[in-house]
Amino acid sequence: MKKLIAEFIGTMVLVVMGCGTAMLVGCGADAGCGYILTALAFGLVIVGMAYCVGNISGCHINPAVSLGVLMSGGMEVKDFIGYVIAQILGALVGAVILAAIFGLGGVTDMTGGFGSNGLAGVNGSAVAGLLVEIVLTFIFVLTILGVTSKKAGHGSFGGLIIGLTLTLVHILGIGLTGTSVNPARSIGPAIMAAISYGNTEPLASLWVFIVGPLVGAAIAAVVYKYLESDN
User: Fold this and answer.
1) What pTM did the predictor assign?
2) Contact 15/38 with Cβ under 8 angstroms?
3) What confidence category does residue 1 fall into, taking pLDDT thresholds of 50, 70 and 90?
């Protein structure tokens, strides 16, 4: 139960700080520092949470990461299911917190949708969006599997490396899909955008940000397992 609570808290914080920063400063490719600030916000959350709850749950805070760990033999199916449920609930609560903050404070949501993901940057192409999410998640999860491997020996720097990698994939992905690489992070804001603004566009393309990251994570797990094997 403590692991599930840790995953819930971690994902909640990710949505509040990452999506909240995007809402506040804007994250369009023409937004200048807002673009970089959003990328840094997501990366820094991972760094903070890795050293906060990493020793409790492994700080997956992402169903795609949990899938990669599952396929690599690092967790059991029942634990995977529990993690995913906790992560989605955490993302939903994080989005509710943002709705309260921005609603009560009268703050303008610069993204128009709680920092939800979309396909505007790839001209509405679901295929292009899938490709972006598969590639970015592959890079992110492959890095996580490498850093957390018993053979890695990165010690206390693991959380920093993973956080910087998430920042890196956001720098490319924000202008294309908003960068999901995390189904839970996409589900919470998409649902809240529909409830608060009546904006159903994020929900219409949500499947891309569920399927893409999961496929990318699965490929990363297969590739890393092969690379690490003695064969």
Assistant:
1) 0.94
2) no
3) confident
